[in-house]
């Protein structure tokens, strides 16, 4: 797929393909691009493989517009929308590796339903503990 035009609307990046299709992704996957100003977002270059924002040190491949999950869900969404959560500390508390937790957050691996519930329950427990302070 080749994208010929891009634009932004709210928390998404859209692209028009060379076949006339509109594709999109959530900006939650791209922290720097999500936080960028309109001027910074409009300062990009495209090549045969993707879009590059050199000032932001951000890249979006054309291939990524074809992924199954354009919008973060579950644990990915939780940690991407709440960067104040320390994913490494929560991973230690749950008893999983920090690397595996990072893969869950980035969407490269999906936790089982039981594992996802364990992680979410751990975050809720931490929240309850904080309310007693």
CATH class of the largest domain: Alpha Beta
The topology string of helices and strands comes to EEEHHEEEHHHH
Number of domains: 2
Contiguous low-pLDDT stretches (5 residues minimum) are none
The radius of gyration over CA amounts to: 17 Å
Shape: elongated
End-to-end separation in angstroms reads: 52 Å
What do we call the CATH topology of the largest domain?
Answer: NE0471 N-terminal domain-like
Query: What structural class do helix, strand and pairing data support?
Result: alpha+beta
Q: What is the name of the CATH architecture of the largest domain?
A: 2-Layer Sandwich
SS elements, strand count: 6
Strand order of the largest sheet: 1-2-3
What's a concise summary of this model?
Helix content is 40%, strand content 21%. The protein is α+β, with helices and mostly antiparallel strands and 133 residues long. The protein has 2 domains: 3-66, Uncharacterised protein PF10387, DUF2442 (NE0471 N-terminal domain-like); 74-131, 434 Repressor (Amino-terminal Domain) (Orthogonal Bundle).
């Amino acid at each position: 797929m080749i994208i010929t035009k891009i634009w932004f609307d709210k928390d998404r990046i859209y692209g028009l393909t060379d076949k006339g299709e509109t594709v999109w992704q959530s900006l939650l996957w791209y922290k720097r691009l999500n936080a960028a100003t309109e001027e910074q977002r409009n300062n990009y270059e495209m090549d045969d493989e993707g879009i590059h924002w050199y000032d932001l040190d951000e890249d979006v491949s054309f291939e990524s517009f074809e992924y199954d999950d354009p919008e973060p869900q579950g644990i990915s969404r939780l940690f991407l929308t709440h960067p104040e959560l320390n994913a490494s500390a929560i991973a230690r508390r749950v008893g999983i590796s920090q690397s595996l937790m990072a893969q869950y957050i980035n969407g490269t691996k999906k936790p089982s339903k039981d594992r996802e519930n364990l992680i979410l329950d751990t975050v809720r427990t931490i929240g309850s503990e904080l309310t007693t302070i």
